[in-house]
Amino acid sequence: MNNNEKIEWKKCQKCGFLQHSSHIRCLNCKHEEFDKVKATGNAKLLNYTILKAPPAEFRDKPHYTLGILEFENGIKVLGQIDSNDQVKIGIKMRPVYRKISNKLDGKEVYDYTFEPI
User: Which H helix or E strand runs over 98?
Assistant: First the structure.
């Protein structure tokens, strides 16, 4: 990943559980001390769904694909899949930080999307 924005999670210092950085306690053991872990390498597509009735913020797209992906160091994320090709479980993908939508007030929203390698 070569973007300024990084995908970062927390790893519990007590039990090693990986979780999103917004939680203040370990979801597994309730410990409160963590190490920061950055997603490394590429990601593998674990599962996906195609949204054919997207929310209003994505009104410019007739449909889009969301996937669950796992990075080489175990971090799992939910993200948009950018591909016109057939999406298949198990394919390798790379994260790309880009504009994903406009809010209803017109402000741009940026986040990671994933594209096949």
Answer: strand 92-102
What are residue 66's DSSP bridge partners?
49, 80
Q: 43 pairs with which residues across the strands?
A: 71, 93
Residue 21 Cα to chain centre, angstroms: 13
Long-range Cβ contact pairs of 28-35 (< 8 A, separation 24 or more) = 34/10, 35/10, 35/11
Supply the pTM of this predicted model. Answer: 0.78
CA dist 108 and 28 (Å) reads 35
45-101: per-residue pLDDT in tens?
999 999 888 887 777 777 889 999 999 998 999 999 987 677 999 999 999 998 888
114, 69, 70, 66: which is closest to 94 by C-alpha?
114
At 73, the amino acid letter reads N
Q: Per DSSP, which regions of 52-91 are E strands?
A: 64-71, 76-81
CA 26, 31, 32, 34 torsion: positive or negative?
A: negative
